[in-house]
């Protein structure tokens, strides 16, 4: 027997129709909330110039970029000496000037600069598209996955963070997923790095701290030591990250003791006090918590950082983001602040599937299927279908005149809610026999009543 060569790359997935119906339910739920808060849709290309992507995500992010080989003879500009030297980084630059987007935020910054004269600030956009990362595939982590981003750019107002926390709260409430929302500020983390004497090591510190939930404090300390953080600094960091008490108590401790000598750290504390003050006035489903171990590993965050995690399933963050003060500056547009959060549709899907969160009607691709009894009945049913579909009801006619059992099996496998049976007697009397596939109940009904019932 010939070997089956049909396969897909590791870290990618096919989605069957039933799965796509569920995914579209997630996208529709998210899109509806985005639009309710006044955000507008955009799209950007799957590929970007490599220069747009590199150097924006930190060393770890650059390593995970998928590069695209230049078209044509991509070795034309590479000397034999360069090939023999086997310097991977130099060869990357020579062989590839494009890459698949790593996230939607950096392409959005490029988009803003490129379309500066066509948009109005503050610009509120949402974007639902796939991204790619050359990561090691594992549970809840894919090489190709969808992100659903919502950003405001061109405004420093803290109300934007408040609004996006409301969006997170509402989306997960509508999806039926129980979450915790964690909030921190990168300026607080920078202030902590200052007071422990390691201000120049803020990037390795935040990258390590960001893994706190995944690998635990002991491994985080080991990683910091490997990155050159002193033993004294690591020791001084422990009680700070382990602060307990209410939001107010932790912020007061930071402001009046720990960060007393750090101007940027106190600025972060002040903003957190204002943010949590706003949030107290809202009737949120989830009470956000202030978490000093939240760091968000990407380099471009400069202020508030936000993350949402499932409390029913360990799978990593379902949503995350924060404030970036000058991301457009790398493309020549300085002093334009933005803030955004990104929802991971694939992880959300996995949680909802595992915890049986999808409403029953999302598993049904067709509301009513008409049985095919023959040519005369086909013609009659086609006119009925036209009227039913005009009313927005999902309807189909089985295409072949085959055994009734086979047609009913098709309806069952497709989770069709109702089956319509129209034979000679029904045609003669202007009726439809409507069968509820869940209960097995049948009734004779006229077209208008059927439409009203299924609507």
What is the CATH architecture assignment of the largest domain? 2-Layer Sandwich
Adjacency order of strands in the biggest sheet: 1-5-6-11-10-9-7-8
CATH H level, superfamily name of the largest domain: Bira Bifunctional Protein, Domain 2
The total number of structural domains is 2
Annotation field: number of helices:
18
The major sheet is characterized as:
8 strands, mixed
**Radius of gyration (Å):** 28 Å
Helix- and strand-based class? alpha+beta
Average pLDDT, rounded to a whole number, is: 92
Report strand %: 15-25%
Overall number of strands: 16
Regions with pLDDT < 50 over 5+ consecutive residues? none
Distance between the termini: 51 Å
Assembly classification = single chain
User: What is the general shape?
Assistant: globular
Task: Indicate the CATH class of the largest domain.
Answer: Alpha Beta
CATH topology of the largest domain: BirA Bifunctional Protein, domain 2
Helix content: 40-55%
